[in-house]
Design a protein that fits this description.
The protein has ten helices and eight strands. The chain has about 220 residues and is of the alpha/beta class. The protein has a single domain, classed as 3-Layer(aba) Sandwich (Rossmann fold), CATH 3.40.50.150. Strands 1-4-3-2-5-6-8-7 form an eight-stranded mixed β-sheet, with helices on both faces. Strand 3, helix 5 and strand 4 form a beta-alpha-beta unit. It is globular.
């Protein structure tokens, strides 16, 4: 993507009512305005709140919002030029139950209050295979504790990935730390028990992975 195109998207994002772009200071300072008040202040309803972390182009957040109008969805990514597409589609389709935040995922427990979130989706994250990168792996112990803080006691985390490494690493960690695995699947398109929201929504990259013959894996779990 050219820098002109990126700038155009950044400018458009600033005009979108479904995009929130707080500064780091606003998030970690005196208290972020929407923290603990997402449903009351932003969505103006009491529906369940679902996050997509590292939402990329925002296709999954938008797809879930279309499928579940009775839930609120928020996609989070630091790359605003990417989720511009999802935000624009949501506005064009008049989806009032989906929003996007431009922020680092490690600030998630500053963006949301304890027990505010019902469910989390992590779709096709970078597996951060090199050992030095493990601190950025979205299912490491540190991130799981952040998710536990903001999730309701019965809240679940969903991981959908094309990376066998990420799938195996996450399952190993969940077993090792004694978390509750609700569903685990090594090939979602060959398993009749795959949840419909797992096989019913495909991202741009997922379609490419499938064309390359890659298997798509899925884990749903609760953090103990």
């Amino acid at each position: 993507m050219g820098s002109k195109n990126k700038l155009k998207r950044f400018r458009e994002n600033e005009t979108f009512e479904n995009v929130i772009q707080p500064s780091r200071e606003e998030v970690v300072g005196e208290g972020f305005q929407f923290k603990g008040n997402w449903n009351k202040e932003f969505f103006k309803n009491d529906n369940p709140l679902v996050l997509e972390l590292g939402c990329g182009k925002g296709e999954y957040s938008v797809g879930l919002a279309q499928a579940y109008p009775q839930k609120n969805f928020i996609g989070i990514d630091i790359k605003g030029a990417r989720f511009w597409r999802g935000a624009k589609t949501a506005l064009e389709e008049e989806l009032s139950n989906v929003a996007f935040i431009r922020s680092q995922i490690e600030l998630v427990d500053y963006l949301f209050a304890e027990n505010e979130v019902d469910e989390i989706w992590i779709t096709f994250p970078d597996p951060q295979i090199k050992y030095k990168r493990t601190k950025h792996r979205l299912t490491n112990s540190e991130f799981l504790q952040k998710y536990k803080k903001i999730l309701k006691p019965d809240g679940a985390v969903n991981l959908k990935t094309d990376s066998e490494f990420m799938h195996g690493y996450t399952l190993g960690l969940l077993h090792g730390e004694g978390h509750e695995i609700l569903h685990a699947n090594h090939d979602v398109y060959k398993n009749e028990y795959s949840p419909k929201e797992v096989v019913g929504i495909q991202t741009f990259y997922e379609k490419q992975y499938l064309e390359q013959g890659k298997r798509i894996t899925f884990v749903r779990f609760r953090i103990k």
